[in-house]
From TrEMBL:
Annotated Gene Ontology cellular component terms: mitochondrion
Lineage: Eukaryota, Fungi, Dikarya, Basidiomycota, Pucciniomycotina
InterPro entries the UniProt entry points to: Cytok_DH_C_sf (IPR016170), FAD-bd_oxidored_4_C (IPR004113), FAD-bd_PCMH (IPR016166), FAD-bd_PCMH-like_sf (IPR036318), FAD-bd_PCMH_sub1 (IPR016167), FAD-bd_PCMH_sub2 (IPR016169), FAD-linked_Oxase-like_C (IPR016164), Oxid_FAD_bind_N (IPR006094)
Gene3D superfamilies (alphabetical): 3.30.465.10, FAD-linked oxidases, C-terminal domain, Uridine Diphospho-n-acetylenolpyruvylglucosamine Reductase, domain 2, Vanillyl-alcohol Oxidase, Chain A, domain 4
Protein name: FAD-binding PCMH-type domain-containing protein
Cofactor: FAD
Region Disordered: start-end pairs: 1-33, 48-72
Length: 615
């Protein structure tokens, strides 16, 4: 039987390069724009996997821009002229282009390429590209004058959570990635760096290599390396080394507030501070956290810790061959994680999810006709792909004698699980996903994770991200509930647990065919049912798509929604005009509250109306 593990498609794979490559392979048009079809069509890589998910028949017809709430076109044009005068005409562009889809390598700034609601709803009116903190201040002051909502992004990839799209249609998109993309400082001895928000994991990795520090200092990368280091930390994203909690590795921030003032937090709030990237807490209240997943300010620079080369790494995978192994495996993981016997942020992936990295559903099951995978078909697919029902990826760090001893301990802990399989890199085929996980565990950015887009044609994705305890009971309860609800709505359950010391991020990916509007609507219904049913059992999400932020905030309603009310008090105090990201994480400013902007999946979407007499 042919193993699908030998047939994976090449998505910028770095696993074949032993050591640490100087450059990470990516297309010449890697970046972002309002109309990705223009940038991508100029590249000769016709048929390349880099082009996956891009509009196959892009439109060339311009459209009228979506205006900010309450604006006429005349007033909007005057506001844009004012903004061009503030930061330069070359750095402001009206969003009147056709809504052509991009992909991860080149996301669209005109809309969410993987829109779960109507494609033309979460659409900005224009885009601004500031080049400095001073220009961000100028944009914020402009927005206060004109009462136009802003939606800052670091890069705009944000896969599965809304991309670059703003929550309020007609907002001005502030793209910090194009011009504010400098590595401001690297302290080799202290193992720290100071970054602008446009620095991606790839760029930081390559800058360390350029400075001759790539072997000495490692970065922690998420599954995909094209995102912003600062942006991912502000969304409280995760990676896989001992530095995998990205927010926990931040140290020092510069923030532009909604009134245009700039504040520096931590030790950098002292003029001439020499310890800004050494000690995150500073003096007095620790305010940094209120600028994560919020709409209280725009972060324009941030310090981050780097990981010194640990002197060795031993990546491994453990395959649990039976579905019922999930509960005992997670219970053992709890002991290992709490006692810190595992040295990184490991992941426990559904075997079917790994199968999607190696081949499409049509390859495994040609007769599927778009139906969800049954238990019987799943077993056949796993057999074809030579995968367990659950696959655990982890790594140990340090000298060989240390990592070898740790590996023996872990094997002894799981040895009692029937048919369990332990593998190192030398035990698996050349194109095994373990090699790519090994690269990520060593802080080398890759794109292989994108291969699961091949699972279905024209794949769009939506991420559901509940938190589970590190115990088998919680894991099984969530998996059973997710599988039942996903199947009900016509989707495969595709999930991964990212395992921390005392909790797990359970990331469920809903994949649907973007060419079929009925599937998009079903995906929206599916995730809202997942949110509701999990909340009923006491499980909440840590991160949300912009379309589901209101649903999720509504579940955090202890004591009559005291948490949301506190967020609203902060919002109204820091941003009285409500210009910064209204609706972000379900936090609405006073002028929007109770006026139909919230999205619940039932009520009609709030329509942005122009007023000819406005301004």
């Amino acid at each position: 039987m042919t193993s699908f593990a030998h047939k994976s498609r090449d998505h910028g794979d770095t696993s074949k390069v032993e050591g640490r490559p100087t450059k990470i392979d990516r297309p010449s048009w890697f970046g972002s724009s309002l109309n990705p079809a223009v940038a991508i069509s100029a590249d000769p890589m016709e048929g390349s996997e880099f082009r996956a998910s891009v509009s196959s028949n892009p439109s060339t017809t311009k459209r009228e821009p979506t205006l900010p709430p309450g604006f006429s076109r005349e007033a909007f044009d005057r506001a844009i002229d004012d903004l061009r005068g503030a930061i330069g005409a070359d750095f402001v562009e009206i969003n009147d282009v056709p809504l052509n889809a991009g992909n991860y390598y080149h996301p669209s700034l005109s809309h969410d390429s993987y829109a779960v609601l109507e494609e033309d709803y979460f659409v900005p009116s224009a885009v601004a590209w500031p080049g400095s903190t001073a220009e961000v201040q100028a944009i914020v002051k402009w927005a206060n004058r004109w009462k136009i909502p802003l939606w800052p992004i670091s890069i705009g990839r944000n896969l599965g959570y809304g991309g670059s799209a703003p929550r309020v249609p007609g907002s001005l998109l502030i793209d910090l990635g194009r011009r504010m993309n400098k590595v401001l400082n690297i302290d080799e001895k202290a193992a720290t760096c100071l970054l602008q928000p446009g620095v991606t994991y790839i760029e930081l990795y390559e800058e360390l290599k350029r400075r001759g520090l790539g072997e000495k200092l490692w970065i922690d990368v998420p599954d995909l390396g094209g995102g912003s280091v600062v942006g991912n930390a502000l969304d409280r994203g995760v990676g896989y080394t001992p530095y995998g909690d990205h927010w926990a590795q931040h140290c020092g921030m510069e923030v532009v507030l909604a009134n245009g003032e700039v504040v520096r937090l931590g030790m950098d709030s002292m003029p001439g501070s020499k310890t800004g990237q050494c000690f995150p807490y500073g003096y007095g209240p620790f305010l940094d956290g209120i600028f994560t997943q919020s709409n209280f300010g725009i972060v324009t620079r941030m310090g981050m810790f780097l990981m010194p080369n640990p002197g060795g790494i031993l990546p491994f995978m453990i395959s649990f061959m039976h579905k019922e192994d999930l509960q005992p495996a997670v219970d053992i993981l709890q002991e290992l994680m709490v006692s810190r016997l595992l040295g990184n942020v490991p992941s426990l992936r559904l075997g079917l999810w790994d199968a999607a990295v190696y081949g499409s559903k049509d390859q495994y099951w040609p007769e599927n006709a778009g139906r969800p995978v049954t238990d019987e078909i799943e077993a056949e697919i796993l057999k074809k792909a030579d995968l367990g029902a659950w696959v655990f990826y982890g790594a140990f760090y340090g000298p060989d004698e240390l990592t070898s001893a740790q590996w023996k301990v872990v094997q002894s802990k799981f040895a009692g699980i029937r048919d369990v399989r332990f593998q190192l890199r030398e035990d698996v085929p050349e194109n095994s996903y373990l090699h790519d996980r090994a690269a990520v565990f060593a802080g080398v950015p890759t794109f292989r994770e994108l291969a699961w887009h091949q699972w279905i044609p024209n794949a769009g994705e939506l991420f559901f991200a509940p938190i589970s305890g590190v115990n088998g009971r919680d894991a099984v309860a969530q998996v059973d509930m997710c599988k039942k609800i996903c199947t009900k709505h016509g989707f495969d359950y595709l999930g991964t647990f990212y395992v921390a010391q005392r909790e797990m991020h359970h990331i469920v990916t809903i994949l649907w065919d973007r060419s079929k509007p009925e599937q998009r609507k079903a995906a929206d219904r599916c995730i809202r049912e997942l949110i509701r049913t999990h909340a009923e059992l006491g499980y909440g999400e840590y991160r949300s798509h912009i379309a589901t932020a209101d649903d999720i905030m509504a579940t955090y309603n202890w004591n009559d929604g005291a948490f949301r009310k506190l967020c609203e008090q902060l919002k109204d105090s820091l941003d009285p005009n409500g210009i910064l990201q209204p609706g972000r994480s379900g936090i609405w400013p006073k002028d929007y509250r109770g006026k139909g902007w919230e999205i619940d999946g039932v009520s009609p979407l709030k329509q942005v109306k122009s007023e000819s007499g406005k301004l």
